Amino acid sequence: MGMWIATAGLDVLWIQHTTRWHRQVILAHGFGHLLCEHSPPAPAISPNLDDRLWRIVESCPELEGRAISGVMACRESEDRDLLMEREAEVTGRLFVDKLLHR
Ligand SMILES: [Zn+2]
């Protein structure tokens, strides 16, 4: 799973600990969202942020003191916004393929 945490001026793509290949797939997907200029939805009010997000925020010093404007957790089975997810997937794969095979 990957999580996109957006703030004013800084976007963080958090990636779960998994195989190198899977991390590359998740990272490419995250780049796809950024390149397509998608916007992650605003997070829930602070007390409702789930524990996983809090652990990520606390472990990332770059996020300290920054207001989180959006959070998106992407899972392989997620179909919340299928068109946006497909666009991110295709764009991210093309971007990474271009980088690796130029
Ligand atoms: Zn996604």
Q: Identify the bound ligands.
A: zinc ion
What is the tally of beta strands?
Answer: 3
- Major β-sheet strand ordering: 2-1-3
Query: Could you report the average pLDDT, rounded to the nearest whole number?
Result: 84
Tally of helical runs: 3
Q: Largest sheet, described in full?
A: 3 strands, antiparallel
Judging from the principal axes of the Cα atoms, what is the shape? globular
Number of domains: 1
Helical/strand content category: alpha+beta
End-to-end Cα distance, whole Å, is 28 Å
The sequence of SSEs as H and E is EEHHEH
Poorly predicted regions are: none
Work out the strand percent: 15-25%
User: How large is the radius of gyration?
Assistant: 14 Å
What level of helicity do the residues show?
40-55%
